[in-house]
Amino acid sequence: MNVDFKGPTPESVGAFYDQVNAIIAKVQGGSMHHGYWTGPDDDSDFETASARLTDLMIERVGARPGERVLDVGCGLGWPGVRLAKTSGAELVGVSVSEQDVRLANERARAEAVSDRVGFERADMLALPFPDDSFDHAMAFESIVHVHDRVRALREIARVVRPGGRVVLTDFTVKEGPDGRSDQTLVKVYDSWRVAAVPIGAEDYKTIASQAGLVLDEVTDITDHVKYTSMWTYLELRRFARDNPVPPEVEQILDVFGPTLKGTVDSPPLTDAQLEQGWRKMLAEEQVQGMIVVIARTPSA
Prior knowledge:
Rossmann fold; seven-stranded mixed β-sheet; MeTfrase_dom; S-adenosylmethionine-dependent methyltransferase activity; transferase; SAM-dependent_MTases_sf
């Protein structure tokens, strides 16, 4: 696809999340990843939907007591802590955001699992761990922040022992009738510091092979997570109405500026009007999608 990204660096991604992570977690129910709804009639709040996706990922990792799991792009630590508490495994999470790491370690201490759960600042393209350090790895939407999926997955595969699982979520994009992706989506990706060129779900067979992984499963969950955009923007808009927000959040909202914020000549739509319009859009075929990828390192 012919898509022009601004090209965020690990440093700029880290700086972005240093500014927005607490706000994003607040509007997304405690975590910083998509929610999973069962369908259009599912009225779950974001916290419930987010936990549902977390549990789906934890189940696919399949960690057992005493095993060691790497959480690549740990956010504020909620998924990693939940995995450790439900499975009995140890966990190390990494993020390029200093604030992520600080708040995630605070969460681990508050949840009384800091003896086997810890978080540190690191770039997924250069993980500070020896080969075969972990039994499994998981990554919630973090791979979209690096330019080279193969390089990132190769590095993750390096630190996972032979036969270990690598479970991740990734964005996919469908081409429009003119052969280009939706340009609004490009602006959305820029505002969220997405770096990776959009792919199709079918591309993961080649990506996994080039990274030295065995691909077991690719599952399209677009129809379940697509409501994330609606609730994220609605809740961000509500939050920004009542609280000062950093420029990074303003940039996110500015993508849909006239719709979300109004203009001099036209007042902003009400929350109810926005939700109605968003649901109409979500009933159509989506340009952006999401997949769950399950792979493993080759057995010795």
